[in-house]
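protein under study:
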Amino acid sequence: MLRVLRGRNVSVLIDGSARTVSLGGAGNMSNHLRFVARTVMVRDGNVDAAYNALTRILSVDGIVETVKRKRYYEKPCRRRQRENYENCKRIYHAEMARKISFISRADRQDPWLGC
């Protein structure tokens, strides 16, 4: 939940990661230099755009998935299964990207010399 407070900074703490939403101008940034990488500025009172930007940052950092996953208890067996599945998926996608980049290279040698 995001509350609108004029002239103040709103700090959001999710899963140990602090995010600060500043409702003032750029002058308020000097007070919160440690939150520079995690700050969303509200410009002209447009809280919806700032909230969307904050949501995007949290989803890119993977915090949204972590919070959803930790909402309920995950049995150790299911956790291992999920982690193994994610590892296999990551390896598969990396290999596929490598193969596609190799095939799409224009300056590679012709594998069928003499044919």
Notes: Residues 10 and 21 are 5 Å apart (CA to CA). Helices lie at 47-61, 63-69, 76-104.
